[in-house]
Amino acid sequence: MSPFIPAAERILKARALIQKARKLPAPEDLGWGNFEYVAKVKDLLRKAHELIQFIPLTSGMPEETKAEAAQVEEEIAQAKRDLLR
After folding, report:
1. Structural domain count, the chain
2. Any idea what DSSP says for residue 85?
3. Residue 36 belongs to a domain
4. Fewer CB near the terminus (10 Å): N or C of the chain?
5. pLDDT per residue over 17-29, tens digit each?
């Protein structure tokens, strides 16, 4: 069984993964380097999404935390648009 991670810590970890994806060096060629870059970015953003996906659905969670999770979801979508276009 996986350990319990508080919502605030999940949000911080998700934001760290988004920053890590943004700091990946973009490839100069359009060959396998581009494929590897896209795979790494998608993997990091997927992990960030998985960390926070159930926070808005959790009962008893403060509305501020749910709103912050929704904001992180928007940050993930924006990073995906910026990095994978």
Report:
1. 1
2. -
3. no
4. N
5. 999 999 999 888 7
